[in-house]
Amino acid sequence: MKTAMNETPRNFKLALFLILAAAALTVALVSASILSHVPDFKKMRYFVEVPVKHANGEWSYRKMGPKAKGWVPISQISNYVIMAVIASEDSSFFSHKGVDFNELKEAIKKDFREKRWARRASTLTQQVVKNVYLGREKTLWRKLKEFFWARELEKVLSKTEIINFYLNMVE
After folding, report:
1. Which DSSP string corresponds to 44-81?
2. What would the pLDDT profile of 7-47 be if each residue is shown by its tens digit?
3. How far is CA 16 from CA 4, 7, 74, in A?
């Protein structure tokens, strides 16, 4: 004879399975959505139009990239400047593939402790993606795109191309 106590473990396992299945499906759908709309990063080898907010609050677009007017090639940028930016913004730039998981873990821990966005963990690659394609609003959706797209950008552009783009773009 079955009792309510015998049913509890089975119900718990079923509920847990359904929750995990729903979470996995959500992750798969979000990932598919993000990765199905990846920009054509190859265009960055020529030029892309980057949104620029002016002091008066108005927006315009500026062409950025090696084929754009005013672009400074990496060969004309001091190695001291390049190394200073990497040291201050993304010390593991040459060893990660777009995302620094150690910095991300530390930022999440600090954010939870302080109950606010207390620490940034964006790599130079993520900053390029954000500034060129995503804007500055602080949303989880933007951060997810930034996370996935940075990894995709690193498959298309070299580290030299990424740092060159960053140095020409940074304000």
Report:
1. GGT-EEEEEE-TTS-EEEEEESTTSTT---GGGS-HHH
2. 667 777 777 777 776 666 666 655 555 555 789 999 999 99
3. 18, 14, 53
